[in-house]
Amino acid sequence: GYAVVEAIRADANLGGANLRGANLRGANLGGANLRGANLGGAYLGGANLRGAYLGGANLRGAYLENTKFSDDVIA
């Protein structure tokens, strides 16, 4: 089955985490470290990723409608 993540600290260190297929709808991940994380197929609709670090993250197939990103989010 798919993981459902209900509460993650905004500044969480999730570098390299396997969040494949996770439900992160509306999650506040601003400032989180998601470098190299596997978010393939994850549901991120309405999530706040402003200031999050996503360099090398796998977003293939992720649902991103209404997701908020910073301009430099993949730096």
Automatic annotation (TrEMBL):
Cited SUPFAM superfamilies: Pentapeptide repeat-like
Domain of life, source organism: Bacteria
InterPro entries for this protein: 5peptide_repeat (IPR001646), Pentapeptide-BTB/POZ_domain (IPR051082)
Name of the protein described by the UniProt record: Pentapeptide repeat-containing protein
Organism from which the protein derives: Acetobacter indonesiensis
